[in-house]
Amino acid sequence: MALIFDKRQPGEPGVHVVLIGVGQFAHARVADLLEADAPRGGFPNLETPLHSVEAFAKWLMDELNVADTPLHTIRALGSSASRSSPLGLLTPTFTNIANDVGDWADDVDTDEDNLAIFYFCGHGLRIGDTQFLLAEDFGANPRAPFENAIEPEELANAMRKVQGHRQLFLIDACSTEVRFSEKYKNVRTRTIVQETKNENLAKSEQCLLRASKLGTRAFGSKSGPSLFMGAFLRAMNGAGAVSAPGQKWVIKADMLRMALSWLIQLRPEGYGQEVSYGGGTLSSNLPFHVLPGKPLVPVRVSCDPSDIEAISALHVDSAEHSKAGNWPSSFDIVRQSYDFEAIEATSSGPHVHGQALEEIVAPPYVDVSIRCSGENP
Amino acid sequence: MTTTVEFDFITGQPAGARLPRVALADIFELGRDNGEERLAVGGVVVNLRRRGSERPTRVEVKPGAFLIRLRTPEGQLLMKRVYVQPSDDTSLVFLPKQLSEKPEKPRAQIQKSAAQRSVVPSILLDGFEEKKPTVPREWWSALPMARTEEPITIANLPGFHASELVQSKHDFVGIARLQAEALREIPSPDSVSDSVTAKLVGEIAAVQGAKLHGTKDAPFAKWKTPLRDKRLVGDKSQEGKGSRYFSLSYRAEGELNPIQVACVPGRWVRRDGNLADVYADYYERSVGNISTRSLRVEVDDPDLGGLLDFLQQGDLGGSARMLSNATELLYRKWSNPYASAAAGYVLVQVGDWPGAHGNWRQWILNLAYRYSSLPDGAILFTTLLLQGSTDDLKNLHYEHGGENPFRNAVTAALEAVRRGPPLFRHGIKMMATNLAILESETKNQAADEQTYRTLKAASRYVRELSLRVDPNQPFCVFDV
């Protein structure tokens, strides 16, 4: 079943979502398509796409809050080599993807106040100026081995003609460049929605975010969502928010992009993974989720020199936050000003090694460095 | 009293990292108890590579507490809180931390090391370059190709002393500057690899070697004029109207082996009227499992640098000032059509924005029509024709009636292809999109079968460009 959530109201605007998580690539491996040109590691099966789709679907159903635009549909496709999803998803072959994306496009086209969300997680590669997102049956047709893939920018450009002008594309896949030998010519993906002349350019509020910038890889976990999706869900608590009139905080694409890169790079494997906008489409600063309260801002606190962290506890606003030697790599706190202190408990009483006072903690993130004197207590 | 906002994007960067050229600053006014923030000024362009005489960025604000967010095109972020005291001058002045100057080595030390080197046993000199005899000065001069009878390609440049102009310390890699003329017709998509020259460069008219400076690991070439021969490059007013310029990266231990071809601008006039340096250097590029040294082109103009960096990242929406800057650059096309083309990409992507000038579309048409060797203008105008609404387009004034190739989108798109690869990589994606749309529109019209076939051929040509282009750079650099 592809439509896992359906509360469509004819004549009413709503949020329409399509989620694709491709975890099996049997044909791509067997066909060994690119031979020496293949990206490092080839096309192994992935567990993270299905986890990512499930986590995102849950968040959308439980948390998404777009003013005056309720969630209307979620279409989801997903696969994994080791398990099936409790959501009962169809496999993400090209045909299934094309059908779902086509139906999703039709739904988005019903009202100009609709919000469209497209999410893809799986293998991606870049040949020249084109990114390919691989469907499960990529490589299945030996006569045209590259056709079962999606070009996200082409889809985004084509989607500009539909009525619903607010559109968010999240591409959670590698963008590793593949040197292309002379063996193949005119390599291109199949078209899902044909680009046409459109009159909606000025109205379009479209944003395409890639999990990794040109030429770099995106990472995931075998037992959970990808780094991008993990960071995305965390950023929805406030890191991607900007202040709006009426004491509201709204997630906007510009702030979100900065927050995502920082959150991803907190993880060792995420170093070098930089979230970027799509190159061929106009990415506007699209607002799409209103926070229920004040934003929770990710903070990384460190001592300068860092070895003080081993002997001092971290105090936030005069209360102990973390014990000596156990400082977290980051944590989320409500947006406001804070005092951060590195305090060592000694036999003669507490010794303050350093302070960072009245630090404003505001989205998208804050790096706090406590300058320590280094004097012995 | 002015309030100085000092910021440092250098600390924490790996050694040798390049400082971005510009950052965007958003200035938020903080409410009571810092509980709410309101955007006071957004998208202030701050030059990070400020030189001695250049004035720092200054922004007038009211007294009070402010939060300043500065972001680079690569996504680095710095936040600062400042309090502006009430006074006669309540402006904020942005001052980047500059790279520290290299200490000047004492002269005596240099002499000492030079003296030592002369007595180093010869075995220690293994791996040092044996000094090459100086080549005749004229071998570095611009060499016209008009009188040669041999076929001229990027792999065969008669009279050009490729192997004599390279050094072993640079792994026999060199850079040649090419002057070329566009083809009269669209390159055939079915021709074999020997016409790569035609597809990427057109007809080569002149060649000149570029001297490599810098270290063994980071060689670079720079110039202000594309060829050092005024008779060949002509008057400044002819930029964008006659010849096109390219950089050929090659290896020539013996024979000339082309590696990459980059589209480069001609004379690049900056806002202050001076010519900017155009740089060609190398960077490490990962492709699949392989890491290769790839050619990179840059222009030393902060007006353009910021624009291109943010265009590359697609991050333009936040900066009305950058759009104003782009509009100004577009309108300055008489002095610099290349910068105008870069600005055109920004404006065509953004479309209508609150500060847009009324007649910017007419300026895009002028850029397309008057700068006949610049494909970028034609690409931009095709996109406008395809994506703009009828109202936007009906007031465009066409010159010279039927001779003008910009009467409709098909002729504009094909004219862009005839002019060859665009200067800016962004144009390739736009070209491909334009041709796909036109192909689909003409596919089912029997009367247009010839047009359909031509468009299909043009699409294949652009696809080939797309497969060869380095996707990490703002200027087009193609693998050969």
Could you characterize what this model shows?
With 377 residues, chain A is of the alpha/beta class. Chain A folds into 2 domains: 3-290, 3-Layer(aba) Sandwich (Rossmann fold); 296-371, Immunoglobulin-like, CATH 2.60.40. Helix content of chain A is 19%, strand content 31%. Chain A contains 6 helices and 20 strands. Chain A has helices at 26-31, 48-62, 94-108, 152-159, 227-239, 253-265, and strands spanning 3-6, 15-21, 71-78, 115-122, 124-127, 130-134, 149-150, 166-173, 205-210, 241-244, 248-252, 276-277, 287-290, 296-304, 313-316, 319-322, 331-334, 336-346, 349-361, 366-371. Chain A has a 7-stranded mixed sheet with strand order 1-3-2-4-8-9-12, sandwiched between helices. In chain A, strands 16-15-18-19 form a 4-stranded antiparallel sheet, with no helix packed on it. A 3-stranded antiparallel sheet of chain A has the order 5-6-7. In chain A, strand 10 (241-244) and strand 11 form a beta hairpin. Chain A is globular and about 80 Å long. By secondary structure, chain B is α+β, with helices and mostly antiparallel strands. Chain B has 3 domains: 3-96, no CATH class; 135-299, no CATH class; 304-479, no CATH class. In chain B, 28% of the residues lie in helices and 24% in strands. Chain B contains 12 helices and 17 strands. In chain B, strands 8-10-9-13-14-17 form a 6-stranded antiparallel sheet. Chain B has a 4-stranded antiparallel sheet with strand order 3-2-5-6. A 4-stranded antiparallel sheet of chain B has the order 11-12-15-16, with no helix packed on it. The longest helix of chain B is centred in the last third of the chain and has 20 residues, at 449-468. Chain B starts with a strand and ends with a strand. The model of chain B is unreliable at 101-130 (pLDDT under 50).
